[in-house]
User: What shape does this take?
Amino acid sequence: MTEESSVFRGPQGPLGLLHSQDVESLRPALRSGLKELRLSMSDQQIELILRYVGLLNKWGGVYNLTAIKGSDQILVQHVLDCLSIVNPLKDRIGSAAHILDVGSGAGLPAVMIAIACPSMQVVALDAVAKKMAFVQQTALQLGLKNLVAKHARIENIESNDFDLVVSRAFASLTDFIEGTKGALKEGGIWLAMKGRVPSDEIEVLPKGFVVREVETLLVPGMFAERCLVWIARNPDVKSG
Assistant: This one.
């Protein structure tokens, strides 16, 4: 265990697995949200999601993991928002893939992908050590063997075997692509989670890259605009 991760030890061991009545009360809303998203989850997966909500609600403000306060807001603004990409993800790359989540923060969307898609291998990457310590301890406590946290900057990524690189409001599309193009395998794809359609960013996309689709999302309980921008290398143009 790293020095940073030790701060997350609680009375039930690292982090603590027992979630509060406040979190338990979210179970109906979570089930309803999953139904709206057309996601089928086992009772075990639902329990893991609720445990994550409890952990983030407990430690989020203390260690600056998220600006969102309250378990009910975490459920909508983080959990359901991230779960909304699961079906589009499966439609694009199948149920088994190697995924890199850049600027993952508290593990979003990495943790939700790992829970919802146990056949996918997920790497959460962030330059802030305490955030990756939280994600790694979360993976250990929730038994998510398909999730790994990596404390590093994007320019130091060494692997180039990812099927998909995802970011959630991490950077401009250009910075996102330029910073991670060495991590994506041939034929791989980028997925940027955005609010409004980033038309200005799309217009200045670097040479050699093309937007395959801009997909509108409807997140249960969220009234803000959300979309997915799917980007690939343009095989007809040589990029730098």
